[in-house]
């Protein structure tokens, strides 16, 4: 089997209203969907949701020559060849482009073998994963938290046991919002907070202390994504878990955090950190420090189901709560791209089933995203 071509699909949808976090508001969602096709029929799918236009160019000009014409089962050699071709782009958009292609190669191999990716990663540790609801999100205007009470009640109703709300406006506002949400969801719900790099060390610690008063279990991305010392200071000052890593890529970046005991849980995103191949190395490195991996999930249905496959294979750890790691992040913001091929139901126990079909576990039909398509292209074998 040889890789015959790479097809690129740039998709985007508008949101009913702007929403966001401590650093940005968005009114649309987009992604680059990458299809890697073999000369024997099977295709595999991957994505990167950040900087899709830049990732398109990098795949087309730099990565495709390292992939097309090669055996998809030589995944490590292909990953290294792509990484070598990135040169100065071995972080940021370059690694995101590589992540999308690597994800598609794993999906392709799974489909060719008739096995889910979780089995290719070493076998299923679990077939059901505890899920937490990601939301509510901030709204533009004088009161960014104005919808939190109503949305918290809606979000938790399907069966979630845990919910992650956005914070980062200022410590006082964060504290008031945390108290209001706690009243809505009750004392037994697991509450998490995400500051999305909105703070420096001192206000992050102040917000963390307000959250501790309301029984929150973790504070995510309290400071800039690459501020290892800042994370270490915040983690050392707080009793709740301090987590992060969604915006960094590659094993070396995570090593710096583990060496400083700066993370209570690591959150690599498959579409940012290097795909399944590199995230598997990050998971192994994290295990050496006994740091749980709780992946970030954003983007379309492809990353959604890819991360479910990853969660099925991750080591288990106790958490700061009765719900053991790993957890699956189930985004609750409006996003038609997440629902292209349906989403699994959350059970009454807060668990989500991992699909057992080949590859990512779903059949990707391009007709489902045709109405969101902005651009399509192809790089083929000569």
Which helices and strands occur, and which strands form pairs?
Layout: E1 3-20, E2 25-38, E3 43-48, H1 52-67, H2 75-86, H3 93-113, H4 117-120, E4 128-134, H5 148-156, E5 162-166, H6 171-185, E6 190-194, H7 201-213, E7 218-220, H8 228-237, E8 241-244, H9 251-259, E9 265-266, H10 275-288, H11 301-311, E10 328-331, E11 351-353, E12 373-380
Helix pairs in contact: 1-2, 1-3, 2-3, 5-6, 6-7, 7-8, 9-10
Structure description:
By secondary structure, this protein is α/β, with parallel strands linked by helices. The protein folds into 2 domains: 3-114 and 361-380, Enolase-like, N-terminal domain (Enolase-like, domain 1), CATH 3.30.390; 118-353, Enolase-like C-terminal domain (TIM Barrel), CATH 3.20.20.120. The protein has helices at residues 52-67, 75-86, 93-113, 117-120, 148-156, 171-185, 201-213, 228-237, 251-259, 275-288, 301-311; strands at 3-20, 25-38, 43-48, 128-134, 162-166, 190-194, 218-220, 241-244, 265-266, 328-331, 351-353, 373-380. Strands 4, 5, 6, 7, 8, 9, 10 and 11 form an 8-stranded mixed β-sheet that branches. Strands 3-2-1-12 form a 4-stranded antiparallel β-sheet, sandwiched between helices. Strand 6 (190-194), helix 7 and strand 7 (218-220) form a beta-alpha-beta unit. Helix 1 packs across helix 2 and helix 9 (251-259) runs parallel beside helix 10. The longest helix is centred in the first third of the chain and has 21 residues, at 93-113. The radius of gyration is 20 Å and the shape is globular. The two termini are 16 Å apart.
């Amino acid at each position: 089997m040889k890789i015959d071509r790479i097809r690129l699909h740039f998709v985007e949808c508008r949101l009913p209203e702007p929403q966001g976090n401590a650093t940005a508001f968005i009114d649309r969602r987009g992604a680059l969907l990458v299809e890697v096709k073999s000369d024997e029929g099977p295709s595999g799918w991957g994505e990167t949701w950040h900087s899709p236009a830049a990732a398109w160019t990098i795949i087309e000009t730099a990565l495709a020559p390292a992939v097309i014409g090669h055996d998809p089962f030589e995944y490590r050699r292909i990953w290294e060849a792509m990484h070598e071709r990135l040169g100065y782009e071995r972080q940021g958009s370059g690694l995101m482009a590589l992540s999308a292609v690597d994800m598609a190669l794993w999906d392709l191999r799974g489909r060719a073998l008739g096995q889910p990716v979780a089995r290719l990663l070493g076998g299923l540790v679990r077939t059901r994963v505890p899920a937490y609801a990601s939301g509510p999100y901030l709204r533009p205007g004088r009161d960014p938290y104005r919808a939190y009470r109503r949305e918290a009640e809606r979000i938790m109703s399907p069966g979630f046991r845990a919910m992650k709300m956005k914070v980062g406006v200022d410590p006082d506002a964060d504290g008031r919002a945390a108290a209001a949400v706690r009243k809505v969801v009750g004392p037994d719900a697991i509450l998490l907070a995400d500051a999305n790099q909105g703070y420096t060390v001192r206000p992050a610690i102040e917000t963390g202390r307000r959250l501790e008063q309301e029984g929150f279990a973790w504070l995510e991305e309290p400071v800039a994504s690459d501020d290892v010392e800042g994370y270490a200071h915040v983690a050392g000052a707080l009793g709740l878990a301090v987590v992060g890593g969604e915006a960094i890529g590659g094993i070396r970046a995570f090593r710096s955090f583990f060496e400083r005991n700066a993370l209570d849980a690591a959150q690599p995103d498959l579409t940012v950190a290097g795909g399944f191949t590199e995230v598997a190395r990050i998971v192994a490195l994290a295990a050496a420090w006994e740091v749980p991996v709780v992946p970030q999930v954003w983007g379309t249905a492809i990353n959604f189901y890819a991360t479910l496959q990853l969660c099925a294979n991750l080591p288990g750890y106790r958490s700061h709560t009765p719900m053991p790691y790993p957890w699956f992040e189930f985004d609750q913001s409006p996003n038609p791209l997440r629902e292209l091929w349906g989403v699994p139901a959350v059970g009454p126990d807060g668990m989500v089933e991992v699909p057992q079909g080949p590859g990512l576990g779903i059949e990707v039909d391009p007709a489902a995203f045709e109405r969101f398509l902005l651009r399509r292209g192809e790089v083929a074998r000569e």
